[in-house]
Fold this sequence. Notes:
2 copies of one chain form a homodimer.
Chain A: H1 3-7, E1 13-15, E2 19-22, E3 46-51, E4 67-73, E5 83-84, E6 93-94, E7 107-118, E8 121-125, E9 134-140, H2 153-156
Amino acid sequence: MSVKSRTGAGRRFVLKPIGIVHSPFREPTDIPRDMNRLPRAFTKVRGALEIFPEYAEGLKDVGAFSHLIVTFAFHKSTGAKLLSKPPGETRFRGVFSTRSPHRPNALGLTVVKLASRKENILAVSGIDMVEGTPILDIKPYTARDRKSGIRTGWIRGRRVPAPPRANR
Amino acid sequence: MSVKSRTGAGRRFVLKPIGIVHSPFREPTDIPRDMNRLPRAFTKVRGALEIFPEYAEGLKDVGAFSHLIVTFAFHKSTGAKLLSKPPGETRFRGVFSTRSPHRPNALGLTVVKLASRKENILAVSGIDMVEGTPILDIKPYTARDRKSGIRTGWIRGRRVPAPPRANR
């Protein structure tokens, strides 16, 4: 029995949006390509996460977290490429070493900062998605998600310094 | 026109596994419930991410990153609950403020530390998934995913201190 049959690689998972992103970016082309290379470029970009009313009860207690992990669908993705050239790069990179929208499963992930909640609407900053992006999940950002001593490969090729004290 | 029809809330996204997790935990019950409350409890739990050969080309360059974000399917989830009682808690919490497997879309997310890569197998630590968990995506963990000054709500109810210098 192959690993694939034993573990159900043929299985499919069907996801449905639990909400949508509201963003100042109307289209992917509204996002300057160089912006993705700067760690803080999106920090001040404000938007909202609109959770559909039928899921609003699940938002209880999210207001106690400063940051949320948003998993969304790259709904404008035009298909998967296993190798791609990120913005500003001259070499092809493996898709799993990039945040490209053109992935085998077109899932996106952004950690946003929560400003406030009003019923089923979360006001947030750190938006790098486009208007109307389907939200698939929201998770609290916890101490386990905050890693130290990270190396970020071709993005910088060296250790990322800790943020200055004033920003903590 | 409602927001939902305008933005395609009726849309469905079909995902297929790109690999599976190899873990020392055979079943969810093998994971001590208290472990989830300790930020470093899983740090030394070793396992592997087996990426199916047809996606292996996409692993190019991942070896240059210290940490990877693994999105997976909670394939043993028995359905969504909008409110649930996390391990050791006495109160019901909104599902989007928890990492519960019983979510509207049963997506899990864990940041693992990459030890080595051998072809389509990534040796990692920080495993909190069970053996055979279907992997849906792998992304590089970048400086933008590392947030400072976080508040983690009911999990601690106060700011998480920066890790000690020796661990950076």
